[in-house]
Write a structure and sequence with these properties.
By secondary structure, the chain is of the alpha/beta class. It folds into 2 domains: 119 residues, Rossmann fold; 93 residues, Orthogonal Bundle (Arc Repressor Mutant, subunit A), CATH 1.10.10.10. The protein has 8 helices and 12 strands. A 5-stranded parallel sheet has the order 2-1-3-4-5, sandwiched between helices. Helix 2 runs parallel beside helix 3 and helix 6 crosses helix 8. The longest helix is centred in the middle third of the chain and has 14 residues. This is DNA-binding response regulator. One of its GO terms (molecular function) is phosphorelay response regulator activity.
Length: 225
């Protein structure tokens, strides 16, 4: 498992540190998030083989994060919780969790159960998320379809390519020239202001989530999470 990667999300820093140490020999890369939104942001940016979520994560709870991740990817998600009641466990499984671990847990048992999950997936290569989700904005990268609050919105191929490029690289500023080079390529003929026109129609199409696309005056555009 040298090249495998793990995402841990728990609001308790001590628990994160303990799990990171516990799995240090099993995974080559381990990231920790302190809340649900931070976990989703990390998941969008990296490729993971396993995700472990605390059920009571701050900002967005573990089941909410699990549902979001399962919409984006087939990566196995495990929920850990202090609650052992059957309704809690069933709720976790319905959200897409592969397993449900009750705290406190034995380290050796947790390692064994995670090994079983990974062995079942060892012939399935980890892949980037098949969809990008920003609250009610859902970008299905396989079908090239965009949904706003579960309603599909029609985009031109160039509008979709612009949205996908920007959303896959949140925080990165793209000049108009960079966008033309990447999205249009050598076949482009016209003014750099063509980009502005496409961004305007794209923003109108994805309202009320248009504010994710930020104008950097005199430079270009950036996507904010």
């Amino acid at each position: 498992m040298e090249r495998s990667s793990l995402l841990i999300a728990d609001g308790n820093r001590d628990v994160c540190s303990h799990l990171k140490l516990l799995f240090s020999e099993m995974f080559g890369s381990i990231d920790c998030a302190a809340d649900g939104i931070a976990a989703i942001k990390l998941f969008r940016r990296h490729v993971y083989h396993l995700v472990i979520l605390d059920a009571m994560l701050p900002v967005a709870d573990g089941r909410t994060v699990c549902r979001q991740i399962c919409k984006m990817s087939d990566v196995p998600v495990v929920i850990i919780s202090e609650r052992s009641a059957l309704p809690e466990r069933l709720s976790a499984y319905r959200s897409g969790a592969e397993d449900y671990i009750v705290k406190p847990f034995e380290g050796d048992e947790l390692l064994a159960r995670m090994n079983i999950i990974l062995r079942r997936r060892e012939h399935v290569p980890a892949k980037p998320p098949r969809a990008l989700i920003f609250f009610g904005l859902y970008i299905d990268t396989r079908s090239r379809t965009v949904y706003v609050n579960d309603i599909p919105v029609p985009l031109t191929p160039k509008e979709y390519d612009l949205l996908l490029l920007l959303s896959r690289n949140p925080g990165q500023v793209y000049t108009r020239e960079m966008l033309i080079d990447i999205v249009w390529g050598d076949d482009f003929f016209g003014s750099p202001r063509t980009v502005d026109t496409h961004i305007k129609t794209l923003r109108n199409a994805i309202r009320p989530y248009h504010e994710h696309i930020v104008t950097i005056r005199g430079v270009g555009y950036r996507f904010d999470e």
